[in-house]
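Reviewer has doubts. Consider these tokens.
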Amino acid sequence: MIAADPSIQMWITFAVIAFGMVLYAIDRISMELSSLAIIVALLIVFQIFPIADPASGDQAGSVKALIAGFADPALMAILSLLVMGQALVVSGALDEPVRRLVGPATSSPRLVLFSVLAIVLLFSGFLNNTPVVAIFIPILNALAGKMNMNPSRVMIPLSYAAILGGNLTLIGSSANLLVASSYAHITGENLGFFTIFLPGLMLGVVGFIYVAFIAPRLLTDRATMSSQFGGSSKQFLVQLEVTYGGALEGLKATSGLFPGLTDVTIRCIRRDDEVLLPPFHDMSLLAGDTLVAAATRQSLTQMMLKSPELLSGAWHTGGVGGASDSGEGPLPGRESMMAEVMIAPASRLQGRTLEQVGFRSLTNCVVLGIQRRSRMIRSHTAQLVLEPGDVLLLLGSRNDIHALRGNRDLLLLEWSASDFPAERNSGVAIAIFAITIALAAFGILPIAVAAMGGALAMIGSSCINIRQASRAIDQKIIMIIAAALAMGHAMAVTGGANFIADTVIALLGDASALVVISGFFLLVAVLTNVLSNNATAVLFTPIAISVAQRIGVEPEVFVIALIFASKCSFATPFGYQTNLLVMGPGHYRFLDFVRAGLPLTVIMWLTFTAIAAFYYGF
């Protein structure tokens, strides 16, 4: 087939990209399907209207080139980092850092949030911002849960803070290095390590104000399935045992509260045959006391990890787990899960206690707590008569939890099933992650190689298993990266990007230098949300230099403008790697990035225009 005029492919490519943006925006079909539709449309276009590479004579828009995004190193790096981040959560490696941050968060939650965003912005100026964001995703997610804040309010600001931090130094982003290398190759001059620091700091300060104070207000809550069915504030009735030599023995109440048990509500203390009710003024706990308390699932998990002996009653005769003759300890095995089950209507368990039904032998699961709405319960949980609608919090092996799906008397709440943190592997997980970051940050290994090696090490050291790793990978990210790279390749080979640049520059040719550099910044800022920021940076470096020479301005200033504009990738999820990284944890849709990113793009454009006028003297 004879190749058609390139302008035909260019205009059809524009139409396909515009249609794809509409599909993403209206959100009527899944993002994965929209991404696949874009890739297939471009494949068909280049099969009907092929383009020959002038240098080699091969087809430029080949099938191999258009689907290369599925094996792109950036995609491999992102997926590997998602697995490593999940391993940090599963292993409990982040529990202690979160506890330290949550301390002041209870009194000044916004101060803690601002501090985290500021740390991310600063670190991203010297480290690859993808692993920086990967580190703080689970930390911010845990902090949001502690502060009763939806993660969708903080994940996009986290990504934006990292992008802004990349403007501080020459190594803050791979795009910075690409532009500097191209600039040196064309002009023979080099950009210094801190050449962009002062204007980048100005942009960072202005952007940080928006990210910290305005962006969270523009975002909407994106509830997870579990939060829609009860959230993290639901409390269970649980028994805590005061053991000899344990953490609670001799603990004295202060102002009616026991230090170390501030996350639970103590409803009564059972001491021999006596029931002690609150308030507990100047009372000390004695070995053998049983505390009947209300606690959230998260609080119970933390107690089991920190002081497992507190829940030892669940493993012995008379505890909420029923009779058990085994000598196993309170901490579960490596393949353990926590889940919630509901007593079904007409269940054979109703009207009977956990001891009477032998719940432990019946299900091979331990009951950690019982939840009954609108009822103040102070009775012994093992002797509590079960009713339809009661929710039991269980701990058991993965196979035993999954086996409850076929139980006629219990309804397994699928969304509630989660792996129990294996905190004994937390040190290994932290070491693997630290080594991975060091290898990537100091350029010893490419980020993709380091991240894939780190993911393999996490799985190999049992910090995370294959099933957990596969659940950490979001299909949206795979498809949207592949589609973005396909669009970028199509724009490059058809000359679409150059066509847009030449048109805009021609329109601004007779304007003042300030108007030209401002218009150039805006053009790049718009295109970087469609193309990748690296592709935009490389494509526009020679254009920036030629425009500067045409109007008699130092090329370095236009190159710096290009560096800043190429990182205004705020308005689409595929504009920057960190946007894709937070998309899954924040449960975002395409329009969430448009809503929060467009104002920031405009702010960055106006701020740089002011910097060009006053700092560079335009």
